[in-house]
Amino acid sequence: MFTEIARARIEKAGGQCLTFDQLALSPHSERMLGPKNAREAVRHFGPAPGVPHSYTKPCARFKGRKFERARGRRNNRGLGISY
Fold this sequence. Notes:
0% strand
């Protein structure tokens, strides 16, 4: 994990070199785990993007104005319904 030179410098400065298993079993270490549903990828799962009241992001290949942002999403791009 450490080179001999790095280990010597760390220990000379008063530190200690731990392996991963020593670090995991150390009483002074605490495992940090963030919120799992805060990832951006989670926003793509759920009801389909076209379903009413669905806040799921579409898995679009491109993000331009013509791709999944035009019909029914912009004011002057209706769904082709003639009244």
